[in-house]
Amino acid sequence: MLVYIDRKRTSPSVPRKEYIYRMNRGIEDAVKCGVPEEYVHQIMRTYIPVDDDEEDEERGNMAEFARGQAERFKDESGVLE
Fold this sequence. Notes:
mainly alpha, 47% helix
């Protein structure tokens, strides 16, 4: 599960490419696990665009970047410690 809470940035905006990449992988998994396509299109796609137009090289670079971010993740609240 990917949860993102940001109390400072609360107005709609354009998500970063690495976030779009991660969310699209999560959406793919969610649909495979039974989340209705209608929910994805009506709710999630309002904020997360499909990344099909990315070239394989760019997608591979984004995958590597996202993995690096995950490896360096530090929970600032201390909850995961």
